[in-house]
Design a protein that fits this description.
Elements (H helix, E strand, L loop, with lengths): L2 H14 L1 H7 L5 E10 L2 E10 L7 E5 L2 E7 L5 H12 L13 E3 L2 H7 L3 E10 L2 E10 L2 E10 L2 E9 L1
Antiparallel strand pairs: 1-2, 1-4, 3-4, 5-9, 6-7, 7-8, 8-9
Helix pairs in contact: 1-3
């Protein structure tokens, strides 16, 4: 099968889990647990849904011809879940590193959480030069102080200090 039919197969499998995702979403954040492997030239997609008591960071592991992942489902619409999984397995989310000059669109707290940061403290301050946000966050055991300047609907990263 081509990559396109693998994507169709993944979307179809996610659509079949829509009711289960909605049901489990009543009890907490559902997580999509998946395995995608190529066996004898054919793609196989295996998905399961679970509610995990503690919130965990999404991740994917690639080994031989198999890709395994865990992805939280915050929006149960199949296309949205599909896009989250594709983004995760193509490593776009894992490659997102914040650095001075980066721009965060929308809610900075949510954006940092999607990048794998745990927000420890967040403070907004208005000055004569504009609005600034200071964030204390941790990721993979490292702690950071992140300073952003609010520009319209975006936040521009001014400084990132590893503590």
């Amino acid at each position: 099968m081509t990559e396109m039919s693998f994507r169709k197969q993944l979307f179809k499998a996610i659509k079949e889990l829509k009711n289960e995702l909605e049901e489990l979403g009543r009890y907490g954040t559902p997580y999509l647990i998946g395995e995608i492997k190529k066996d004898n030239g054919k793609w196989e997609v295996h998905l399961a849904v679970s509610v995990i008591e503690e919130e965990i960071e999404e991740f994917s592991i690639e080994e031989n011809e198999t890709l395994m992942f865990i992805c939280p489902v915050r929006d149960t619409r199949p296309y949205k879940v599909y896009m989250d999984v594709i983004s995760l397995i193509s490593n776009k989310r894992l490659q997102q590193e914040i650095k001075p000059g980066s721009v965060i669109k929308g809610n900075p707290r949510r954006a940092l959480k999607r990048m794998g940061f745990e927000i420890l403290w967040m403070h907004s301050q208005n000055t004569s030069e504009g609005a600034y946000i200071t964030v204390w966050a941790s990721k993979r055991g490292n702690k950071y102080t992140i300073t952003m300047k609010v520009v319209g609907e975006e936040a521009k990263i001014i400084e990132v200090k590893k503590i």
